[in-house]
């Protein structure tokens, strides 16, 4: 428990953190990686370069300071981050390193504003927050290893099949090298894969949603090829997978993780995906039709049919289940799309189309896609009267705010 004096000091820093949060986290990563370059084997380099990780960490620190006297308010966020940490292999011994460099960064950025009493208060507070993460992650590690078919850290899998789903997305079917059991998962969860190409001294870890229903035999991930250059580095691993990984090759993966999962409900269920955000929805959809749900709506928005993955799979589900409605929005349909009448609307999703397609204001919404897409969808859903606790979403990468 923190003393009231410590709580008061931490709360007094909230306005400063709101103003300087990203400066502090940027300096934090510079210091930490400078002293511990081995941690670059765990952290996503692209998120670092694009500033997403710095922004997400700044938001987390701000939330912790704001709720320092009621840390239970941020437990859902701690659990969400804990899943990512367990999937990446973050261990208790990493937390003192993070704490040391976070305090150094606060000193560097705030200068005289970081008095001894402020630093001491933050040192004490960080210890409490770190213990919360370590405790939750300990349980997640135990659960991952002890479950039927589970394992510790990373395990080698073979690419048993590689399937091109569209011009930009390819699926990889993964089976364990040892031929043993594999852990089940909840629809919407992801796995981390660890790869190393010959052009880099560091390993790279990326998290990909499981895009098929649990089956006990294989995992399927479906990877979008991102553009890769010095200005857009997040395509490094996806291009490596598309170009270099072939059937029969081995990839190390961690056990399934994640809090963005489908939960059966009596109310209508609506899945709204944009682009590659369709991947977790495939697993959710296949589970939903097995549940006692009377009304399921599947909405997908993408550029056109050339980049539309899983259309046949979804259509097959629709044809086999009378309680599923399927709508497609193509922003720039091709002539072939127009001739085949494969889409429902020409253009981006609008509040008018969502109002027509969503069965009722009681619907439970699951959405995933690029951040601008989800921000737009979230805003429209709220304007339609959908309550925040009915809207569930997932970010590919560090968590950000939609509202």
TrEMBL record:
Residue sites binding FAD per the record: 190, 206-209, 395-398
FAD-binding FR-type domain: residues covered: 152-263
Active site: 95, 137
Gene Ontology molecular function: any one: FAD binding
Binding site for heme b: 85
Site (Influences the redox potential of the prosthetic heme and FAD groups): 84, 394
Chain residue ranges for the region called Reductase: 149-403
Name of the molecule in the record: Flavohemoprotein
Source organism per UniProt: Fredinandcohnia quinoae
Gene: hmpA
């Amino acid at each position: 428990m923190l003393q009231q004096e410590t709580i008061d000091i931490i709360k007094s820093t909230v306005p400063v953190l709101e103003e300087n949060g990203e400066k502090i986290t940027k300096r934090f990563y510079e210091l930490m990686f400078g002293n511990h370059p081995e941690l670059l084997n765990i952290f996503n380099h692209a998120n670092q370069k694009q500033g997403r990780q710095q922004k997400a960490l700044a938001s987390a620190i701000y939330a912790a300071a704001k709720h320092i006297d009621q840390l239970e308010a941020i437990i859902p966020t701690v659990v969400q981050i804990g899943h990512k940490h367990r999937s990446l292999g973050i261990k208790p011994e990493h937390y003192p390193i993070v704490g040391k460099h976070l305090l150094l960064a606060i000193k560097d950025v705030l200068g005289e504003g970081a008095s001894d009493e402020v630093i001491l208060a933050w040192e004490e507070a960080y210890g409490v927050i770190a213990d919360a993460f370590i405790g939750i992650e300990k349980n997640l590690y135990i659960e991952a290893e002890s479950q039927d078919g589970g394992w510790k850290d990373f395990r080698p899998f073979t690419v048993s099949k590689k399937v091109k789903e569209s011009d930009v997305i390819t699926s990889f079917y993964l089976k364990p090298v040892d031929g043993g059991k594999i852990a089940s998962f909840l629809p919407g969860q992801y796995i981390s894969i660890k790869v190393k190409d010959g052009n880099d001294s560091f390993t790279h870890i990326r998290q990909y949603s499981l895009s098929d229903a649990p089956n006990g035999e294989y995992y399927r991930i479906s990877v979008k090829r991102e553009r890769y250059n010095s200005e857009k580095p997040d395509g490094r691993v996806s291009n490596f997978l598309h170009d270099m990984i072939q059937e029969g090759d081995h990839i190390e993966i961690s056990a399934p993780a994640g809090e963005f999962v489908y939960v059966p409900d009596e109310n209508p269920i609506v899945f709204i995906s944009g682009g590659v955000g369709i991947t977790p929805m495939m697993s959710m959809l296949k589970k939903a039709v097995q549940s006692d749900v009377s009304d399921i709506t599947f909405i997908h928005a993408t550029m056109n049919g050339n980049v539309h993955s899983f259309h046949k799979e979804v259509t097959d589900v629709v044809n086999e289940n009378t309680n599923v409605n399927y709508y497609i929005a193509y922003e720039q349909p091709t002539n072939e799309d127009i001739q085949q009448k494969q889409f429902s609307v020409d253009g981006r999703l609008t509040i008018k189309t969502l109002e027509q397609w969503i069965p009722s204001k009681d619907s439970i919404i699951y959405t995933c896609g690029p951040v601008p897409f989800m921000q737009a969808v979230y805003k429209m859903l709220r304007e339609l009267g959908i309550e925040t606790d009915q809207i569930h979403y997932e970010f590919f990468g560090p968590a950000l705010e939609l509202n």
